[in-house]
Amino acid sequence: MTLVSPSLLASLDFPAILDGLPLGVAVLDREGRVVTVNTALERMTGFSREAARGVPCRHVLRSGICQGKCPASGPVDTEIINRHRRKIPVRISAVPVLDPLGQELFRLDIVEDLSALRELERRLEEPGGIGKLVGKSPAMERIMRLIPAMAQAGAPVMVIGETGTGKDAVAEAIHKLSPRAREPFVRVNCGPMQAEALEAELFGRRQQSGEIAPGAFQRAGTGTAYLSDVGELPEELQVRLVRFLDEEAILPAGGQTPIRSQAKVIASSPSSPESLVRSGRMRQDLAYRLGALRLDLPPLRERPEDIEFLLAHFMEVFAAKFRKKVLGFTPRARRLLLAHDYPGNVRELRNIVEFAVMICPKPSIPPACLPAHLLEQLAAPGEKE
User: Fold this and answer.
1) CA count, 13 A, side-chain hemisphere, 82
2) Cα–Cα distance between 51 and 42 in angstroms, integer?
3) What is the SS3 assignment for 224?
4) pLDDT at residue 359 in the model
5) Average pLDDT, stretch 296-318?
6) Phi, psi of 83, deg, nearest 5
């Protein structure tokens, strides 16, 4: 077994350089045995560098190309099976490192995790939506085109929309389509909480023992911290949030030493940053930082072309959930559902369909199986038959 000189690696501070890379890297000797792996590849494969050292590469990467195409002459898309027997789609590129005489000293196998890309491709192929987001109107199709682009950006994203329009689903979709998809998604509701408790929930708190109880930004790590109802954040905490967005460091309550955090921030509110500033509920500097990338979700009443599509979608979902053979709505029930203005937006429509499918004993759902407030509308003049 030929190993690269440890003194050479140490002089280049090679391990630190490799650990700073977002891609997985395996350093192999000329016989294809692992000299070391970086932190990203440890996380991807589940094998520590100590466990991998000296082991043939094929026992660490465990890819199909190990059976004959290794080393690949160019980037190869394949799958590896990690220590926990999970298949991970990857792209592997082999880079030889040569000495001045052109002799190969060692080889770098660069391993790019394609999970987020494959997930994005799968979701883009889903008819009518991304994840929990569903819609066929031009407004929703534009939102779904923007989400993947915003997922790739490291900047904060603000999601604006009335209750029930899908702000939480958008935040989750941005996280799942981002390079941070394998990291935590931590949600904090900034609304119904005392300022002191909210400070600890967001930034952590130094306990009497001296230990730091981690806040949302520490728990998110390099993942995503999602702050819903951000307009309810007290001003003193808005100042601290601005400082975090500028410096990527937080100071736990009662602590003296700032802690680094690379969490991406997604915030949501029923109101736009401009209206929050006008009403005195948000600082201008925070509005500037959060509002750079924003998604405005239209209420359902402004995209009526989605109502029939959503009715059919959720009927199919709940018919499968309750194992019922429901084929559709009667003409009278359908007319009522299409005429409703849905102040609770998609959430209200979803609840109506869930209720109707759950209680209806017939293949076609009649008005009698709809919630009471819709039946009252049915009794209005012009709806009686």
Assistant:
1) 18
2) 10
3) strand
4) 93
5) 92
6) -60, -25
Percent of the chain with pLDDT over 90: 41
Higher pLDDT, 21 or 246: 246
293-296/157-160 β-pairing: parallel
On the CB side of 331, CA atoms within 13 Å amount to 1
Phi, psi at residue 364, to the nearest 5°?
-110, 130
Token digits of residue 379: 């009794």
pLDDT surpasses 70 at 12: no
Burial status of residue 67 (CB atoms within 10 A of its CB: 0-12, 13-18, 19 or more): exposed
Q: What would the pLDDT profile of 319-372 be if each residue is shown by its tens digit?
A: 988 888 888 999 999 988 998 889 999 999 999 999 999 999 989 999 999 998
What tokens appear for 214 in the block?
């981690």
In the predicted structure, residue 10 carries a pLDDT above the cut 80 = no
- Supply the pTM of this predicted model: 0.66
Q: Are 206 and 255 in contact (CB under 8 A)?
A: yes
pLDDT at residue 73 above 80?
no
| Side chain identity, residue 38 | N
Buried residues in 94-130 as b, exposed as e (16+ CB within 10 A): beeeeeeeeeeebbbbbbbbbbbeeebeebeeeebbb
CA–CA separation, 168 and 153 (whole Å): 18
Query: Strand, coil or helix: what is 178?
Result: coil
Give the residues across from 250 on adjacent strands: 259
What are phi and psi for residue 82, nearest 5 degrees? -80, 180
Strands 364-365 and 212-213: unpaired
Q: Which of 243, 245, 265, 255 is nearest to 204 (CA)?
A: 255
Rounded CA separation 350/344 (Å): 10
Strand partners, 260: 249
pLDDT in tens, 122-170: 655 555 555 667 788 899 989 988 998 899 888 999 999 999 999 999 9
